[in-house]
Amino acid sequence: MKRQQQALSPGMPKSLQPGHYLSWQQRIYRVTALDPQQPLVIHVETIPGGERVQLALTTLFAAPQTGQDTPLFATSLEALDAQLAQRAVPLSEADPDELPASFLVKAQIIVQTVDMVSRLVQEDERRARGRREAWSRTQAVRRALATCEGAVIRVQMKDTSSEHILHPTFSTYYKYERLYRTCGGDCTRIAASFRRSTFRTSRLSRAQLHFSEMCLVLYYGNTRVTKTRAYQLARETLDHRTHGYWIDPERCGKVVPENLVTELLDPAIPMQALLDNPEKAALLTRITMPSRAWFCGYATYLEATADTGQQLMNQRLGQGVWEQYHLVFETFVHRAGLPLQYVFADHWLVNAWIVDEETRSQASRLWLTLLIDAYSRSIVGMALLSEEPCIESIQSALRHAIWHKSSHARLGLDGEWSCYGIPQQLFLDNAWAHHSHSLEHLARAISRDGVYNAIDLVFRPPYKGRYGAIIERVFRNFSGQIKELVAGAMASKSPQEVRAAAGRAWLLHTDLDRLLHQLILTYQHTPHRELNGMTPHQKWCEGIQTSGLPLIPAFTPEMDRLFLRLHPQTRQVRSRGIPAFGLNYWSAELGGIARRASDGSPVRYHFRYDPTDISRISLFRDGIWAGDGHARELQRADGTYRQVSLAEWQMAKRQVASRALDAEGKTPAELVLVTDLEVLSKQRAQEKRATQRAGARRAQPSGERQAAQHAPQADTDEETQRVLRFLYH
């Protein structure tokens, strides 16, 4: 149910390339080659043994994955061994002689407290089961804590010992228990976890920080090289180009001269000429290159906190430096050097009507959301929803983009749609949904504390439609094909044509979804003029031969819930559960969540939800999934929960507030039940009339029925025949 705080994995690559290693299903493999014809297949050999086999990425990242099923990747065999050891032992080994005595004392108190309470809880459970009484672990923990109140424990520290009186609280115990489990009950590891996050951080001068950040922007943030390669380029720049000199921001005042930075990095300008200039030489100082471990760790920190990284860069390098290298609106097509470097998102109201599945008479239109990779022009993700562009539109498209595609296979379509992965930069317009807390949190959380790429959200300038031209061309292409293929398509925007197209509509939601998937697959394998005759699929395959296959997190239940909408406000546990939307949410798996923090303040939980079904919410504390809660008021007699959308629930609440005649004396939950029954009665009445009409058709002479069935089949394409078969059969 809960995920432990994930530490950065040693040697964890951001892409998979030949020579890398992976561990899966208790076996170790070395990647020997990538298949340019099959991008979702890698060639590997077993270690040891050397047996050559093929592995499909769709199998490696099959959902759901938990615990030991998740594959591990590393650039070297030593780094893979370190990851395997880290999986078995969450925290690295620490020398107790280097830890403060107070840390070790507190760790022993935690271990003894958890052991004592656990023993009392087990005895309480055995006693209750022997008497065949109902037993609650929460209540048993409370009784055990009451027993431990005022107990004296002895802590041994080398040659001295001390006594401590216990005053454990309920919330404090659960904090102790979680730390105990995370560290495997090891006192040394528990004590090491008390160190601050900046422990042993190198103290660098402002000049060293300025140089490191500039190199990260130039060599790492603006390309797809590894951190190690970026460090090597930075060292070569300092040793051979600037001869150990760099700008000292403390000598420059508020603004670092941009022209001096350019001249320092320009190989056409001799370094001695800069040193001979008194004004420029006064701004320079000698620096040493930071360690590789610090450099790589700092890069990981900036990746995990994209907003903070942008702020740091602008403060230290000058306002606009981050935008200069990253907000590449006009030149992104030429600067995109590898797949997933720049990905563009946009929405399109499909120019065709569909009808509802029940009556086949209610016409409506759908919104298509696409994500397109600037390097290969590949469509990496899509979402087709009835709602106008919203949080779910972009987050559903992102979810479809990150993991391997199977939506076309579920619709019965053949063809390769091999592109996947986490976008490095996602370009969006300024719609309100794109500025939501939910999307911003998802962009950071997808990195899993820097293990994978974080998503840098980049917003286009307002009223600059040309910046979305790369995706608008695809929409125009699809629009023209839909006008030719679909009877319910609108040839123009005139009111008469719009009404006429709605009257001709016969496609269902699934039909339009299948048609759009067909158009996307055709587009993926059609030569592109701007790709020198290559198809987007071929360009993608060419790119991953250089960048390596993108690595993505396992699709676990917690990862699935990250793509739900995040509510901007927090909640705390009340006597009736978690209050939200005027409902109270609870479940058995939430029975052990903390209510009070160590300082006695109430614990605040964030929650995510699906606006189309608010019968369930997912709780998160500090980014960690704590469990799901269900609305008690929406529970049926059989234990299931009535699915209600947020819009339906809010409308029911408004009816209650307005004291309408039919709502008098009813709660919102009762109104929803009445509405469900009305919808059900209408559905059954329609089914009854349809059955009666079918009986009347069976009474027709066989000759007339056969004529009615076969007459429309002449000179029709395959798509029209499929629809006619549905209507007449």
Describe the fold and architecture.
It is a single chain. This protein folds into 5 domains: 15-88, SH3 type barrels (Roll); 96-192, no CATH class; 206-325, no CATH class; 327-550, 2-Layer Sandwich (Nucleotidyltransferase, domain 5); 567-643, no CATH class. The protein starts with 14 loop residues before the first strand and ends with a helix. The chain is 43% helix and 16% strand. The chain is an alpha+beta fold. The strands form 7 sheets. Strands 19-22-23-24-21-20 form a 6-stranded antiparallel sheet. It has a 5-stranded antiparallel sheet with strand order 5-4-3-2-6. It has a 5-stranded mixed sheet with strand order 15-14-11-16-17, sandwiched between helices. The chain contains 28 helices and 24 strands.
Unreliable stretches, pLDDT < 50, 5 or more residues? Answer: 1-11, 325-331, 700-729
Number of strands: 24
The CATH H-level homologous superfamily of the largest domain:
Ribonuclease H-like superfamily/Ribonuclease H
Task: Please tally the helical runs, counting DSSP H or I stretches of 4 or more residues.
Answer: 28
CATH class of the largest domain: Alpha Beta
Per the CATH scheme, the topology name of the largest domain is Nucleotidyltransferase, domain 5
| Corresponding CATH architecture of the largest domain | 2-Layer Sandwich
Helix and strand content put the structural class at alpha+beta
What is the general shape? globular
Radius of gyration, in Å, reads 31 Å
Could you estimate the helical fraction of the residues in percent? 40-55%
Distance between the termini: 48 Å
Order of strands, widest sheet: 19-22-23-24-21-20
Percent in strands? 15-25%
Counting structural domains, the number is 5
Q: Main sheet, how many strands, which sense, barrel? A: 6 strands, antiparallel
